[in-house]
Write a structure and sequence with these properties.
Strand content: under 5%
Distance between the termini: 53 Å
Radius of gyration: 31 Å
Bound molecules: arginine
Strand order of the largest sheet: 1-2
Oligomer: single chain
Shape: elongated
Largest sheet: 2 strands, antiparallel
Number of strands: 4
Structural class: mainly alpha
Helix content: 55-70%
């Protein structure tokens, strides 16, 4: 097959090179954006008198027909085409003859591909944001049901202080809100128009770049034509934002994996979201969360691929940049796959409140509260801390807990101890009294849910 650019070549390109060079297998998914960009370009060419109005209209009509034929399945994308840009243009020329050949006036595949990716990712970002919104809403719902479900909070994976399950879940909503903000920010810089940068050096035709930019719903044309075709920072920025978001999902997944274990048994996943073992009949595995943890590596890898691909490239376009698409598409595809499964998995999981409470009741999780009891009676914190340390050591030697230690033993360490210490160090008090802003008390969790919903409303303008 002769290439569209075959004019200066005396031989056909080796079939291995053609196959190697072709990007149609992965850029075909941008057909809609490619056509949308071409329609805007043809509109502007007509308006500026660069091509005749009737040619412009004919081209636009032809492009719309190609789009609807592709969507209805009447037209199939040729897997042997070099890329989606060449395919659409060749199809247009097949249909319109010479008129079709006018579309590429004052344009290059270099600005065309930069535009297509931006338009494609702009839509993907919207979808990902919607999924993150659903995830946050699901977490708010579960947190509302568990604003007073006591569980141990950990540092170094050691039981540290009591919190509520609602509080733990709401921590993730805050990370996810920031993920949405990062996507919003990325979207802002994504939505600028490289069209009209042409191959690299702009054009001698009297084009109107502001017009194409606004026809495509973009914020403004990019200010430098070399930059317009050279950079893929918008892909890298998106891949970074997605890597951070996946890292959050991965940490959450890791916790769910632990919570499902017999050692914790804090939650049970619905059968529909678990898998069994081919040999061990007792097994119920949290595969979904393990896959999310695994796919996080992949998305981070995509980000590194993009950065590494770009780091040594001179301006302007280099063919290396064709590698951008598989990496960024892989990242967006995989985060969507993860979210679509993760949300209903969370929504259907069973929370084993009693086990959480039992785990919180052991391990001197209320030792800080015991020290705070003394502080509230006037003792300096460091002294109270030391005395409580002594009490913990005493409990360990007597194989008992702070809740069960006799008042006499307490009094031997400090005269400030009285009967009310048992109330002060009870799990319920420990949690209920932690009502500092952002804290784990049921009251504070409810406030966090309200604030999160408000923020979500602001981010999505609803
Ligand atoms: N398929 C190419 C890509 O994805 C389109 C741009 C080709 N430009 C060029 N000068 N060869 O990067």
């Amino acid at each position: 097959m002769a290439m569209m650019w075959a004019g200066r070549f005396s031989k056909e390109v080796d079939s291995k090179v053609n196959a190697f060079n072709s990007s149609i297998s992965f850029d075909a998914r941008m057909y809609k954006q490619d056509i949308e960009g071409s329609i805007a370009h043809a509109t502007m060419l007509g308006e500026q008198g660069i091509i005749s109005m009737s040619d412009s209209l004919e081209i636009i009509g032809g492009l719309k027909e190609i789009l609807s034929d592709l969507e209805s399945g009447k037209l199939e994308i040729d897997p042997n085409a070099e890329d989606i840009h060449m395919f659409v243009e060749a199809e247009l020329t097949k249909r319109l003859g010479d008129v079709g050949k006018r579309l590429h006036t004052s344009r290059s595949r270099n600005d065309q591909v930069a535009l297509d990716i931006r338009l494609y990712l702009r839509d993907e970002i919207k979808e990902i944001k919607q999924l993150l919104k659903q995830l946050i809403e699901t977490l708010c719902k579960i947190a509302g049901q568990h604003s007073d479900t006591i569980m141990p909070g950990y540092t170094h994976l050691q039981r540290a202080q009591p919190i509520t399950f609602g509080h733990h879940l709401m921590a993730y909503t805050q990370m996810l809100l920031r993920d949405i903000e990062r996507l919003n920010d990325t979207e802002k810089r994504m939505n600028v128009c490289p069209l009209g940068s042409c191959a690299l050096a702009g054009t001698t035709y009297n084009i109107d770049r502001f017009r194409t930019s606004s026809l495509l719903g973009m914020n403004e044309p990019m200010a430098n034509s070399l930059d317009g075709v050279s950079d893929r920072d918008f892909c890298i920025e998106l891949a970074s934002a997605l890597s951070i978001c996946m890292m959050h999902l991965s940490r959450f997944s890791e916790e769910i994996i632990m919570w499902c274990s017999w050692e914790f048994k804090f939650i049970e996943l619905d059968d529909a979201f678990s898998t069994g073992s081919s040999i061990m009949p007792q097994k119920k595995n949290p595969d979904v969360t393990e896959l999310i943890r695994g796919k996080t590596a992949r998305v981070i890898g995509d980000n590194i691929t993009l950065l590494t691909m770009m780091k040594g490239l001179p301006l302007a376009y280099n063919k290396d940049m064709q590698e951008d698409k598989e990496a960024i598409f892989d990242a967006v595809d995989n985060i969507k796959l993860c979210l679509v499964t993760f949300i209903p998995m969370l929504d259907t999981m069973k929370v084993l409140k009693d086990n959480m409470r039992k785990a919180a009741a052991k391990g001197f999780i209320n030792a800080t509260d015991c020290a705070d009891y003394l502080v509230k009676k006037g003792m300096p914190f460091r002294t109270a801390y030391k005395i409580t340390g002594g009490l913990v050591a005493l409990c360990i030697s007597k194989n008992t807990t702070l809740e069960e230690l006799l008042l006499d033993d307490y009094k031997q360490q400090s005269e400030l101890f009285d009967n009310d210490v048992y109330q002060a160090i009870s799990l319920d008090t420990c949690v209920k009294e932690r009502k500092s802003y952002g804290g784990p008390s049921p009251e504070s969790v409810i406030t966090q849910i309200e604030l999160t919903k408000k923020k979500l409303g602001e981010l999505f303008n609803d």
